[in-house]
Amino acid sequence: MKKLLASIREVLLRSDCWVILAHEKPDGDTLGCGSALVRRAKMLNKNVIWCGPDKAPDIYKFLFGIEYYKDLKSVVVPAGAVVIAVDIASLDRTTKLLLSEDVGNVIVNIDHHGDNSNYGKLNLIEEDASSVAEIVWSLYREYGWEMSKEEALGFYVALATDSGHFRFSNTSSQTHIVASDLLRIGKLDPQKIFTQIYENRSIEKVRLWGRAFTNTELHLSGRLCMCSLTGRDFDECGAEKEDTEHLVNELLSIKDVLIAVLLVEEGKGTKASIRTREPMDAREIAQIWDGGGHIRAAGCRIDHPVEIAKRIMLEKVGEIYARRSYFTE
Ligand SMILES: [Mn+2]
Fold first, then answer.
1. Which residues form the DHHA1 domain (predicted)?
2. C-alpha angle with apex 135: 83 to 179, nearest 5 degrees?
């Protein structure tokens, strides 16, 4: 471990350019950590490119350096640059970044997804960490890097959003230790940050959520909650794709539900977001369609229109549930 951390440090300090990569539909973790790393790159006088396949949601516009955040397609990775992949389980699934190890691009892969495919030259994967922020916080400690206020803000946003504001099962005493440290260093106001992220909704988003809740169905004797949204729902509400962030967690808040699935029409296919409670495994479900994620939160893309995707999902989840419940109930 010490050796890996030292190798990462060596690569970061040696490279003149840092390319910081976020995952598709970027969330607070990938963007918060990205923002902190942009700040660090600037402090170290590095050139920095921060990019991802989708645009950053407006709620994160208070993060340092967000004005530099670019569409991946417009980026040419300079020779010799280090690429820092943040919170990305699999590079081919999330991005089509063209890289060449021949010109000396080294990928540093920092992640907490248990199914990470170790695509980097250097892979720092810690499944027990609540967020990538928790991992990078330790990295800074190891390197003796003193944190700026902007970095503390980025890491705090990452930590808070990935742990569902310290209430998901990934929240540990270490998560709170890191949070306490960040609050102190950044002189942060947790209430203000919460308001910025969660109490900052557009009316279009609230309308979309209303429609989603109206469409919600219970199956498997109330254990599975499924909800679907079509392109038409978005159009009629005037909502954006990013407006579904955190919606699936609300479905899991229904009494006795063990599996919550949100299906969203995407082109000719359907994007599925899955959340579970014990003993159900979200990743096991997502993997049926080559998706992935965590045990409690995962996602995948199904190459069928929403209505068909819904039927297949119901069938597959039903099979898994029948197997699990046989052993547990
Ligand atoms: Mn994450």
1. 238-304
2. 130
